[in-house]
Amino acid sequence: MPLTRKSPWPLALSALAAFLLLGARLARRLAAPLRQPRRLAAVAGNRSRSIIQHASDAIISTDDDQTIVLANPSAAAMFGTTVQAMEGASLQQFIPREQRALPDGPQLQYFGATGIRLRMKGRRASDYAVTGLKASGQLFPLEGSISSLTEDGRQIHTIILRDVTERKQVQQKLEQSYTQLRELSAALQTIREEERTHIARELHDDLGQLLATLRMDLTLLQQQPAANDAASKLLASMDDVLLSAITSLRRIASNLRPRALDEGGLFFALDSMRQDFVARHGIACTLDACEEELVFDDNYSTAIFRIVQEALTNIARHAQASEVTLQLHRRDRTLRIAIRDDGRGIAEQDMDKASSFGLIGMRERVWAIHGDIAITSNGGTHIDISMPLPAEA
């Protein structure tokens, strides 16, 4: 029987099919890592859009021409409009340019190539304060943060905004209450000083005169012949007691209202207080001031005297100092007061303690005259005060 030869084509076709199947599987495996980033990017993009759409804060994105390219429902609700009405509109329609361009010097920040400037607010460099405009025409305060990124070759700027109307209202109420409290404090200081002056005058003019008259009578009585030695000693003892009472009365009246302030002016009153401070506490104290520069009205002079008096009282009680320097000079319509001691200094936490009535009183007196006060501790306590001079000065 003759042998027949089989055709090679079926085998070749079978091998080619197997090769193509293997190549397709290999291509799918090679293409899978390439498709994975695209799938992840698409998932991330959908997730980001979902986050933006459901965010409670208002989010607006614009291009360099300040055209809104994205707005979420929270932004539309904040401005009293719809997302469709916002997207494609100008940012000027919702955040007017004149409400953004505020001359804050180096704090100006630019939003986009058009140079829209937003006023920085707060401690973070990304926080800004602007004024928004609702669809109804109502202006309201906003606070937000800005970020920029490049997308498809163009710059996109995104603002996250928060309506701070309630916070502003609370701040205004707090500021109003604070102003009223400061005015009340100033009024109480004035009333207290008037009462002090009245009591000091009554003590000096009435009680002081009575004691002086009584001592004169006692002096006349001492000139008469005494009945015995015991009577002479009793009269001498009464004279010592009267003299001590008169001295105490003058000291109390001077603490209430120094007569030197009324009779000699501020410089003389400060120098008298300095001398008394040295004599009473044994702490060296120098006064660096010019008498002609310290001629002021009664209220201004009294405030300065009380500030220096309170500072010296605190030094005597707490500083453990051996030397104090008082400096008072005029500079550019301002009175500069510097009080220095070489004591142990004051702790930072003690400066704002509720029980630090001396420091609180000093601050209130300075602030009542629209001045500034700084208290630092550096090799002792340093008190620097700057007070605007009164108009008549």
Automatic annotation (TrEMBL):
A molecular-function term among this protein's GO annotations: phosphorelay sensor kinase activity
GO terms for cellular component: membrane
Chain ranges of the PAS domain: 44-100
Stored SMART domains: HATPase_c (SM00387), PAS (SM00091)
Domain Histidine kinase: 198-391
Coiled coil regions, renumbered to chain: 167-194
Listed Pfam families: HATPase_c (PF02518), HisKA_3 (PF07730), PAS_9 (PF13426)
Keywords tagged on the record: Coiled coil, Kinase, Transferase, Two-component regulatory system
Domain of life: Bacteria
CDD domains in the record: HATPase_UhpB-NarQ-NarX-like, PAS
SUPFAM superfamilies found in the cross-reference section: ATPase domain of HSP90 chaperone/DNA topoisomerase II/histidine kinase, PYP-like sensor domain (PAS domain)
Record bears the keyword ATP-binding: no
Name the UniProt record assigns to this protein: PAS domain-containing sensor histidine kinase
The organism of origin for this protein: Rugamonas brunnea
